[in-house]
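User: I'm putting together a teaching handout on how multi-component assemblies are represented. Below are the sequence lines for each component of a complex, exactly as they appear in our records. Could you produce the 3D structure of the whole assembly as structure tokens, so the students can see both representations side by side? Please keep the chain order the same as the input.
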Amino acid sequence: MENNDRKFMLDAIQLSMDNLKQGGGPFGAVIVKDGKIVAAAANSVTNDNDPTAHAEVNCIRKACAALKTFDLAGCTIYTSCEPCPMCLGAIYWAHIDKVFYGNNKVDARNIGFDDSFIYDEIDLPIDKRKVEFIQLLPEEAIKTFQTWIEMDGKTEY
Amino acid sequence: MENNDRKFMLDAIQLSMDNLKQGGGPFGAVIVKDGKIVAAAANSVTNDNDPTAHAEVNCIRKACAALKTFDLAGCTIYTSCEPCPMCLGAIYWAHIDKVFYGNNKVDARNIGFDDSFIYDEIDLPIDKRKVEFIQLLPEEAIKTFQTWIEMDGKTEY
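Assistant: Of course. Below is the structure of the complete assembly, with chains in the same order as your input.
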């Protein structure tokens, strides 16, 4: 582990601690490219009335705005807690190269957050989940995908 | 299936189709509460340079802004495609009651989207994933969780 990795993780942890004073959740993250922090953010779910505003999602959005791209290949994220499934998905969609995390999902569960529950739910067949998932009108929905495939000049991601 | 469910799903599908003309991805969603649409959104990843801007995430953000809450209990989401892990996580964090979807994750993979790949990655042990996940400084990170537990008057979510 490089000293820089420890330094950036301490930055993420400091954000998580400072966020408590702002009335936010105990989570912080920084994104680094070429040895420099390009974005830093804390969880703002309750302050922003946005259940998607986890530290990692906020940080990805800020990094993309700063770098003017939807592709964070070449970036590393340092997050004070292991990403939940939503944030893991966001990290993959953003093509971030590497993830350092402090607390893990069991630690998160132990203080009352649902990360482990959502990981468990994802593993269940769709008809066994707590939230009901129902497929409807696939024969209509597929038409958009067919149109997408046939389109010229689309921006893929 | 009620007629209203079909109508709302057709709205989501129409958003997905209309979005192609805006240069966006082939995905749309609406959120309904008490029989009325409270938010409607399409995917804006490429147009907004935001890899988290899937239709469902955009729609959850809009619904929360409209209803001034981070808790969408009592709401149903209609999405033109089965939610990816990021959006599934967002739906759970938002406490949405029920999900109707049109296309499924195999349909999404067939037109070049990574949904299935990310589902597969979540199931792997952390050291087998394509993206490297490394735990670092947990003894520092846990201090924020300890402080959170001991805090009075915090807003839980």
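A couple of points students might notice: Helices of chain B lie at 3-21, 45-48, 55-67, 85-93, 105-110, 115-123, 138-150. Strands of chain B lie at 28-33, 36-42, 75-81, 98-103, 132-135.
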